UniProtKB/TrEMBL annotation:
Residues 13-466 form the Aldehyde dehydrogenase domain. PROSITE patterns: ALDEHYDE_DEHYDR_CYS (PS00070), ALDEHYDE_DEHYDR_GLU (PS00687). Pfam families: Aldedh. The keyword Nucleotide-binding does not apply. The lineage of its organism: Bacteria, Bacillati, Actinomycetota, Actinomycetes, Micromonosporales. This is Aldehyde dehydrogenase family protein. Keywords: Oxidoreductase. Belongs to the aldehyde dehydrogenase family. The active site is at residue 238. Residues 1-26 are annotated as: Disordered.
Length: 489
């Protein structure tokens, strides 16, 4: 039994299984404004002693949390698959990767958050990376565990307390992960509130919240930034992308790169911020590319229930997502495009019983069709043809979003040269999406894909602000009769 919410009239969020919508996976109580206020105040009260604990003890607690999560990998992965429709193998990968990231933080935080003292002729300068206080983490549903820990782990390591608001579309597994982690921490240091935009806004706008870390879409991001601005609270925004995968004329269209590419577009049913969302191929290789792509999809793309072994693509997240994606494809087809079906279907799955959308490759859509100009965030990807590299770059960079991208070529130097000119926070070479992720590569967008970074040292730096204690060098009087108020020379 779930406790009733503490929000208005004890409201609860019921989460169904997107693979079988008749199955209720679980419920969480909605947090009302009083609950949000109480948890932020508790976090604020806990934060100072957490910061004073010292980094070694904080990291020991995070390591214990990582062990507790690792010990529950299988049930956590299954719960995530049930509530999100993401296939079980991917969910195992996400939970395992969350542990890997926690341990990476434990290893790298001591250097990132160390005091640094410089004592030289210019004086004595102490640089102190100081925690902000209470951090609010607002996260989406598509990779809820890793996207939450990318904020929570460095924030806690730096000495902040954290209050998380997960997406109401996948609140269950991440709450369990946070419960396990909180078990290793002092009371109040890590808390969770539940609900939709109202709960998120109550958290972001709270006067005791000192930093906001948000991952999600552009519409919510602008509201979050506006709410945070009422308290002058700094924000990190990790937003959507419309990543181009650029195939140069010499690119290898063999089995391995094509498999990587298909999964780069269709893993998690295309609901990934850095999915390959526009495929640019030289006009001369169109037929060859389509044949190779369809063959790879037939091998690696099997649609069905997220818990069925061998299935590589599950449903999408909601009935609304089904309607939105089908409308985008239909609109392109109405303007002369062709939607080629891809992959195979698991015979044991009742597709009508879940939020399934057939994966498609869209050919010949006009450049201003929504399937090209927007983040489709579903299992459909358009193929676009180009003749010349400069025209190609102009079309790729015309997009307002600038999260990721990829360049595929047999000549790595040529790929790197073009990659430098793609307006994106990160560009992969001869791969795309998860198979290109690295803990040492900072992750985040340019243009309307947001600001701030996760992963790597930059991701740690987001959670501490450098303050200084400074005893400058010898007093230097001003020259030739001027008062002694000179600037440093
Ligand atoms: P969303 O923007 O609808 O919601 C994200 C979170 O914000 C949820 O918890 C939601 O309840 C909350 N929220 C919504 N309005 C709010 C408000 N006014 N104040 C406070 N909180 C509010 O996004 P989504 O549908 O959950 O996720 C999909 C989007 O996330 C896509 O655009 C995707 O590309 C993006 N995304 C980006 C990254 C990245 O790292 N760049 C990673 C994953 C997903």
């Amino acid at each position: 039994m779930t406790a009733p919410g503490d929000g208005p009239r004890g409201a609860v969020i019921e989460r169904e299984n997107p693979s079988r919508t008749s199955e209720l996976v679980g419920t969480v109580g909605v947090s009302g404004p009083e609950r949000v206020d109480a948890l932020v105040r508790r976090a604020d009260a806990a934060q100072r002693s957490w910061a004073a604990t010292g980094i070694a003890r904080r990291l020991a607690a995070l390591a214990a949390g990582a062990d507790a999560i690792a010990g529950r990998l299988e049930p956590l992965a299954e719960l995530l698959a049930r509530e999100s429709g993401k296939v079980l193998a991917d969910c195992r990968g996400e939970v395992g990767f969350a542990g890997t990231y926690l341990r990476w933080v434990v290893e790298h935080a001591p250097a990132a958050y160390a005091d640094r003292e410089i004592d030289d002729a210019a004086g004595r300068l102490l640089r102190l990376p100081r925690p902000y206080g209470v951090v609010a983490a607002i996260t989406p549903w598509n990779a809820p565990i890793i996207l939450t820990l990318l904020k929570v782990a460095p924030a806690l390591a730096a000495g902040n307390a954290v209050v998380v608001k997960p997406s109401p579309l996948a609140p269950l597994a991440v709450s369990e992960v946070l419960r396990l982690l909180a078990g290793a921490l002092p009371d109040g240091t890590l808390a969770v509130v539940h609900g939709d935009a109202a709960a998120g806004a109550a958290l972001v706008g709270h006067p005791l919240v000192r930093k906001v870390a948000f991952t999600g879409g552009g519409v919510a991001a602008r509201q979050v930034a506006a709410t945070a601005a009422t308290q002058t609270t700094p924000v990190v925004l990790e937003l959507g992308g419309n990543d181009a995968a650029i195939f140069l004329p010499d690119a290898d269209l063999g089995t391995e790169p094509m498999r990587r590419l298909v999964l780069a577009s269709f893993a998690t049913s295309g609901q990934v911020c850095m999915a390959a969302k526009r495929l640019y191929v030289h006009r001369g290789r169109r037929e060859e590319f389509v044949a190779a792509y369809r063959a790879a999809a037939a091998e690696v793309l099997r649609v069905g229930d997220a818990l069925t072994p061998g299935v590589s693509m599950g449903p999408v997240i909601s009935a609304g997502a089904v309607a939105r994606i089908e409308q985008i494809v239909a609109a392109a087809v109405a303007r002369g495009a062709t939607a080629l079906p891809l992959g195979t279907v698991d015979g044991g799955t009742d597709l009508a019983g879940g939020y399934f959308v057939a994966p498609t490759l869209v050919l010949d859509a006009p450049d201003d069709a929504e399937v090209i100009t927007g983040e489709q965030f579903g299992p459909t990807v358009p193929l676009l043809l180009y003749d010349d590299e400069e025209e190609l770059l102009a079309r790729v960079n015309a997009d307002e979003l600038g999260l990721g991208g990829s360049v595929w070529s047999a000549d790595e130097e040529r790929a790197f040269a073009l990659a430098r000119r793609v307006e994106a926070g990160f560009v992969f070479v001869n791969t795309h999406n998860r198979t290109g992720l690295s803990l040492r590569a900072p992750f985040g967008g340019v243009k309307r894909s947001g600001y701030g970074r996760e992963y790597a040292e930059e991701g740690l730096a987001e959670y501490a602000q450098t303050c200084v204690v400074h005893a400058p060098g010898p007093f230097r009087p001003g020259g030739a009769g001027l008062p002694a108020n000179a600037y440093p020379g």
